[in-house]
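re: that complex we talked abt at group meeting.

here r the seqs, copy pasted straight from the sheet so there may be weird spacing, ignore it
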Amino acid sequence: MADHPTESAKIRPTLAASPATVGSWRLGPGAGRRLNPSLVAGGLLVVLVIVVALVSFVWTPHSPTRVDTGSRLLGFSAEHWFGTDKFGRDLVSQIMVGARTTVFVGLIAVSVAAVFGVPLGILAAMGPRWLGQLVMRSSDLVLAFPALLLAIMFGAVYGASTLTAMSAIGIATIPSFARLTRAGALQVLSREYVLAARVAGRRRLAIAVRHVLPNISGLVIVQVSVSFAIAVLAEAALSFLGLGTPLTTPSWGRMLQESQELLFVAPRLAVVPGVAIAIAVLGFNLLGDGLRDRYDPKLEQAT
Amino acid sequence: MLVRAGVLVASLVVSSVVVFGFLAALPGDPARIALGVNATDESVAQLREEFGLDRPFSTQYVDWVGGMISGDPGRSYVSKALIGPQLTDKIQVTLWLVGAATLIAVVIALPAGTLMAVRHGRASGLLLAGFSQLGVAIPAFLAGILLITLFAVQLRWLPSGGWTPPIEDPVMFARQLTLPALSLGLVQGAVLTRYVRSAVIDVLREDYLRTARAKGLTPGRALWRHGLRNAMVPVVTVLGLQLATLLIGAVVVERVFVLPGIGNLLLDAVANRDLLLVQAVVMVLVVAVLVVNFVVDLLYAVLDPRLRHG
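got the structure back, here u go
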């Protein structure tokens, strides 16, 4: 079943680490030690976003939520670098606190996906055949519900909140982790050292922890980075639709939503959070690409 | 083939149970949710009876599935309007949008990707990598907002939104559809170009292409006659997967451009907590995703006979 032609193709286009490419992977950490441009650029952008988010806890130029009717819709200035919005709120400060929301939502969503997806993938690879089939068929089913659709359903039932957005994005991402882990684990399980461990009488759990997990960590790290980018996109879209974070929490997606009615007056209000979203997504994607190249030099030459 | 059709039917059944169960088993009573907190017990009871909400779940489910299949999923809890006609109405708008976007993506990606593969070097590869990274990093709704600021606000070439049916005023229809279709299509085109390029590069390395050249075909003819069809196999797969992405992207883009499509219908239904309508629209979208994946599987076999008996 795993060799079914569409099995490997059912990965979304952005997730280039489809099971088909797993075969050429040098699995495991420390496979390559070179830095590459994607890794450096992506790393820098991701660090930038995280630093901005962290700094916002201790310092922002102004209060991100303070309404100041005296300074509405100001342009670029030394006082307000990116100007102010229709309530006189400082844009830089909102972007900084918005970075916090982005990182937080991404972190929780990706953690949910990895914490459930990786063990499920290992179970599917090492457990009984029916269990593997069950996990794979269920992940097919979840893939029919894209993150955004799932989040809209959650929003309809439980009301819009950061929690529903995060769980929806997390659940929708579990299949990618499960599939990837299963494919990687199957690879590792076919190696001689696993056979040796089995012959030596090691239990399945011990093999999973000692051999499988460390050897697929590279794959999983790449997937974490790529999924983070997807989570950032989904969060922005949900907040834009009013299905994400509550009104009191600044978020890039909602800044975009609020900018819409003022596009003809102050396009700056849309461009600034737009660039922030693009930087964050670009950062995590480049980082994922860079890590992938680092673990798999063969793939790098092909692109 | 039969196995795949069976899988499709099974997926449809299971996902319909998921959609129905998820929204039906929610905490609280759909009638009360639709009517709001101030509703009296009598009016809630009346609505429950009117929509058959006091029947067992299994009966409601069978009724609902029957309604969906026959194209009559009943009436909205909130507006009491028939859902079927609303769906067929709004789907047309969404189909125009997704169709135009797919066309734009393909028209960009096929020539650009092939050209860049034939003359592949570091420069074109880097340029393309940059573009497709941007394509991934800029979600369609953001691209839409940016396109509005450029073409509607600054240049004033195109309207910033709205919808006119093509029969009423084809010119206005095209003008209004251009920006939404571009915002979905450009982004997907950038991503697709990268797949086309790598697929064509792979094909160029194949033995059969060398054979074709050896029997005297020019490079262009060899690629046209023997290469492209093979290169299309992975491209069609990606395109199919993108179609699902496009459909979901359209939900948000419709919001940006105020298009009366299925996305706006869904979001309004969520805002009004109109659960029957939400169920119907979500189910339509899920069916679309599943059917598209199924068709991609079939196309795959048609394009590559080697896979037919796989």
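couple things i noticed - Chain B has twelve helices and no strands. Chain B touches chain A through 62 residues (CB under 8 Å).
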